[in-house]
Amino acid sequence: MKIAIVNGPNMNLLGRRQPEIYGCRTLHDIELSLREEFPGVDFLFFQSNSEGAIVGELQRLGYDEAGVDGIVLNAAAYTHTSLAIADAISAIPQPVVEVHLSNVYAREEIRRRSLIAPVCAGSISGFGAAVYSLAVRALM
């Protein structure tokens, strides 16, 4: 099985940025943890602060030679603003699971609305770094 983990803006700052909300684990820590927990899964990891790069990566994963079975997507702030990312998800055949480290429904009003949730196979939020593992399990 091959699963892509796609992360959006500011996720490269995990472990340093607002640890009281996002925890102390870095994105690299999460990647290592997933590889350890799921040794039979071939993971592809991608992070960008650019909306266009995320759209491009979703398209590449969906239609190029990547051959992924599913995608775990933490679109971060683009979750609440990006129709382009929602459209990219709609255009690809693989299931996408939306994840968020924090409980977005317990935060500011704008974070409670997801433009991508309606086109994702499911959404998981509020369990810290464990959301990635839960999403991989959902895709298996």
Structural write-up:
The chain is α/β, with parallel strands linked by helices. It has 5 helices and 5 strands. It has a 5-stranded parallel beta sheet, sandwiched between helices. It is globular and about 40 Å long. The mean pLDDT is 93.
List the helices and strands and how they pair.
Blueprint lengths: L1 E6 L11 H4 L4 H11 L4 E6 L3 H13 L6 E5 L8 H9 L4 E5 L21 E4 L4 H10 L1
Hey, roughly how much beta strand do the residues contain? 15-25%
Round the Cα radius of gyration to an integer and report it.
Answer: 14 Å
Weakly predicted, low-confidence segments: none
How many helices? The count is 5
- Overall, the morphology is globular
Mean pLDDT comes to 93
The assigned structural class equals alpha/beta
Helix content range: 25-40%
- The tally of strands reads 5
Beginning-to-end CA distance, first to last residue: 8 Å
Strand count, sense and barrel status of the largest sheet are: 5 strands, parallel
Order of helices and strands: EHHEHEHEEH
- Cross-sheet strand order for the largest sheet: 2-1-3-4-5
Summary tags:
alpha/beta, 5 helices, 5 strands
Short description:
The chain has 5 helices and 5 strands. With 140 residues, the chain is of the alpha/beta class.
